[in-house]
Amino acid sequence: MRFLSLIYGLILAAISFLNWKGPDFFWLGALNLYLPQVFWTVPGILLTLLSLKVDRSWRWIPILCILWVLGPIMGFCWSPDRPEPAPGDATLRIMTWNIKYKAPKSTILLDEITRCSPDVVLFQDAYRSLRGPLGNYFRKWHVYTSEQYVIASRHPLSHLEVIELPLAGRGKQQFLRCRVYLGPRVVSLYNIHFVTPRQSLNAIKATRKRIGDLPEAGSTLVRNAKIRTAQAEAVAKYLRDEPGPVILAGDLNAPDPSRVCATLREAGLHDAFAEGGKGYGYTYGHFLLKDRYPWLRVSWMRIDHIMASSGFTARRCWTGTGRASDHRPVIADLILKSL
């Protein structure tokens, strides 16, 4: 019992160390980023049940390990309630959403947008989305669009830039940068969609029948993570040159412990959900098992983010429903302190 508990604790310690150091440097760490972390509670539950039969005095060890998983390893957040904005502060409700646009789902998309009532919306995978009902909805807003991206704002926009991302492979990848005007304040706005890990994760999955291919599949996963990190580093160079406040949002395809998010934090941004969220804030995974288990609509990854520079405070951040897309939207109420 003691030996098994020790092994379990050491595994969780290794996961925590990798998450702190940068899990995507190693393929096992990179793979674990995209797995349901709740599965790490299963050994703890079994050990707790075993301890009740073998040695009750040791049951506290697996119980503490379970709490360890449910807390920091799964990314649990419980932020204190923030005060109301002070006179002179600017407030902004941001929504970011990879909508995987399909015309038949326009009504569900509009219901979600109307319910959340954002001031600024940043869409990814929104090709041709403004040709139908969404275009009518935003007709009185300030709108920029390019390829997969849409930026729609109740506040004036200017200075749209379409900037290439590096190492996109065969397909061209870009991000958008523009300015949004909150009265006299000017905020730089970034709409981001980094390269997906889907193909490299599928390569790992395929090794179930060819276990000898696992090392090569693992290398593919690490290379994919390096591309995403390089894209984050390219964006970080622009962030460091920004003279004023910044909001970055989008589908980063990277959970919070990843080097991608660490790179953006090192460039001066902080995560809105980590600061103003309650719970786990997971945005992806609820459609992955819809064919096998249609009743199971549970997300287990937080790969969509809203991040802001130090001038902003996240008063509240939450995720929307998962009815319209395989990504849940992320919504944040941000406060920009008066000068």
Could you give a quick summary of the protein structure above?
By secondary structure, the protein is of the alpha+beta class.
Whole-angstrom Rg:
21 Å
- Helix/strand structural class: alpha+beta
Hey, roughly how much beta strand do the residues contain?
Answer: 15-25%
Judging from the principal axes of the Cα atoms, what is the shape? globular
- Number of distinct helices: 10
Distance between the termini: 59 Å
Task: Provide the residue-averaged pLDDT.
Answer: 93
Topology, number of strands? 14
Q: Major β-sheet, in short? A: 6 strands, mixed
> How are the strands of the largest sheet arranged?
4-5-3-2-14-13
Order of helices and strands: HHHHEEHEHEEEEEHHEHEHEEEE
Uncertain runs are: none
Helix % is 25-40%
Output the keywords.
339 residues; alpha+beta; six-stranded mixed beta sheet; 10 helices; 14 strands; 35% helix; 24% strand
Structure notes:
The protein is an alpha+beta fold and 339 residues long. Helix content is 35%, strand content 24%. The protein is built from ten helices and 14 strands. It has helices at residues 2-21, 27-33, 41-54, 60-73, 106-116, 133-137, 198-206, 214-240, 259-266, 272-276; strands at residues 77-78, 90-98, 120-124, 142-146, 149-153, 157-164, 174-182, 185-193, 246-251, 270-271, 278-279, 304-308, 312-319, 330-336. Strands 4-5-3-2-14-13 form a six-stranded mixed β-sheet. The longest helix is centred in the last third of the chain and has 27 residues, at 214-240. The protein is globular. It starts with a helix and ends with a strand. 41% of the residues are buried.
